[in-house]
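Sorry to interrupt, but I need a hand with the structure work. It will help me judge whether the discrete encoding reads sensibly. Write everything out right here, beneath this request:
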Amino acid sequence: MSDTITKGPEAPSGDNSEKGAAKAQKPERVASLWSDALGDLRRNPVFIIGAVLVFCLLVISAVPQLFTDGSPFEGGACDLANSLQRPSADHWFGFDVQGCDIYTRTVWGARNSVIVGVLTTFTVTVVGSLLGLLAGWKGGIVDSILSRFTEIFFSIPLLLGGMLIMSMWGSGNAISVSVVMAVLGWPQIFRIMRASVLANKNNDYVMAARALGAGSGRITFRHILPNAIAPVIVVAAISLGVYIGAEAALSYLGIGVQPPQISWGLMISDAQPRFLNAPHVLLFPAAVLSITVLAFIMLGDAVRDALDPKLR
């Protein structure tokens, strides 16, 4: 009787073993709040639409010559013979009362609006975040002093305070409007950052870093700040559109950006008395302003949804 030989499992070939070893050694993707948020934003149509609109606005404000070759100022390409003419194939937005092309002035007016929005948002984010980080981390008397100081500015409404300061300032431009709104706007970022730091300062990773001998500076900027900055970014993105709208309101009231500079608020102010006879003079700059503010709000809402784990 012949012996029965039972074959065991064959040893993997050289190629298969190498592939298996490479697969075993391949590091797995480490999930994090920021990587997950970025993945969500790439799939969010609201974020994509808002980002495209914001990008177009930034390009227009940086290089308006790419979009129009006319002069936006009175005395340049303006002709009183064209006063209040309606939109046409050659002049899409028509002409204003001075005979200036509204499309050209709308394109050039984006620059002051973007300067005010970006400069104000950057200033309030930096100042409010640093002071909020200091108050939340230090606590005690430092927190009490900074919180009481912040409440003084927080009690002043943005537009009302801006009207009061700009009326005393006199002549206004994009820089002066940005400074005024930054002075009145940073307390909001301060309170958000302070609350976020207080919520993160007693977490396990902070305790572990302290137990390993990390100093206050390292813990603050390497551990606390990256985990506390998310809500600040959300509010800053939404506030940028708010500051652009506030600049337009101040310019509309005649205490913001002053002629011969161009602003959407100034254009709307000049067009208001002629709205019934020539509605296009007001509608086009007002529509561009609304789309701009809406784009930044869409961007902020999408970032908020991506960075808030509760909304996933």
Remarks:
- The radius of gyration is 28 Å.
- Residues 34-64+101-311 form a domain with the MetI-like fold fold (CATH 1.10.3720.10).
- The chain has twelve helices and no strands.
- Residues 1-9 have pLDDT under 50 and may be disordered.
